[in-house]
Amino acid sequence: MSLKNKAEEDDGKENMAAWLVAVETLRIQPYTLPILGPHDVKVRMKAVGICGSDVHHFKHMRCANFVVKKPMVIGHECAGVIEEVGSQVTSLAIGDHVALEPGISCGRCNSCRVGRYNLCPEMKFFGSPPTNGSLATQVVHPANLCFKLPDNVSLEEGAMCEPLSVGIHACRRSNIGPETKVLIMGAGPIGLVTMLAARAFGAPKIVMVDIDECRLSFAKKLGADGTILASTKIENVQDELTQIQNAMGACIDVSFDCVGLDKTMTTALNATRSGGKVCLVGLGQSQMSIPLTPAAAREVDVIGIFRYRNTWPLCIDFLRTGKIDVKPLITHRFSFSQQDVEKAFETSSRGGNAIKVMFNL
């Protein structure tokens, strides 16, 4: 059967999606897709990962200021196969394997006009209320936000472009290069992709800090030069700073806080050399009490990131050339069934040895 005939046959089947309907309640139910516009493509989802924000929505019906007020299709880390193209689409064809950038910006506001479209106040982002996500049989998405994958990059790796983009954007914002000594607070999925990105950007030495021995062991296997087991107690910061300095054996140029708590940010600010940078990536607390004045007196720059922009081509190139290998991060796989969707979110919620939980549709 030709791809065209296969697409026509599947058009007759009902599209299904994982809907978040209440706290810790997901149901696979029908999902009517928007009409395919001239610049859109229809994509059959093949790989969808679970992000920490998905887990927050699942457990609390909110993530930061984004509140789920009505049933919503969840998910945004995704890749699939093109099944239909809009009348004006020339860059993609039926059968192409693509990774999807999940946010659609307005293109008109000041942020969009100056190229910082990730800060668009009208951003429509997969699986961020009120926009439906991508844990579905099929989705419709703008063609310019679907990036063709080379033959040697799998669909699972394509789905990993989304979390990897966070690390790449953080490294770009921090100007990571071959002389940058890097500290990373937090060895969860985002801390780990930030480590991989920093290494690809040339960072010669990277030290990771976490409260979980299992995750630090994983970071070591992925290539961390040093790991520090920390506590949750703020009074232990000074002792841990000594351990961090000993592990680095040099001044720390850039620290990434991939957690976002009083303690992790305090550690990052104190560990970073005068004139260095601290990049806040994690958003664990909406408000913090941190020693900002002493850091400012040492001209430590504090920068933040929100998602990413213009990262997919570089992600794909890093994967294609083998500069970054995200495959070891995928620790658990599930199918797209009611039972497996529930199991997958339970597994991701527990953390521990679950780094990236992936659906194969």
Automatic annotation (TrEMBL):
InterPro entries, alphabetized: ADH-like_C, ADH-like_N, ADH_Zn_CS, ER, GroES-like_sf, NAD(P)-bd_dom_sf, SDH-like
Enoyl reductase (ER) domain: residues covered: 22-359
UniProt cofactor(s): Zn(2+)
GO MF terms held by the record: metal ion binding; oxidoreductase activity
SUPFAM superfamilies attached to this UniProt entry: GroES-like (SSF50129), NAD(P)-binding Rossmann-fold domains (SSF51735)
Pfam family, one: ADH_N
Family statement: Belongs to the zinc-containing alcohol dehydrogenase family.
UniProt name for this protein: Enoyl reductase (ER) domain-containing protein
Organism, scientific name: Cinchona calisaya
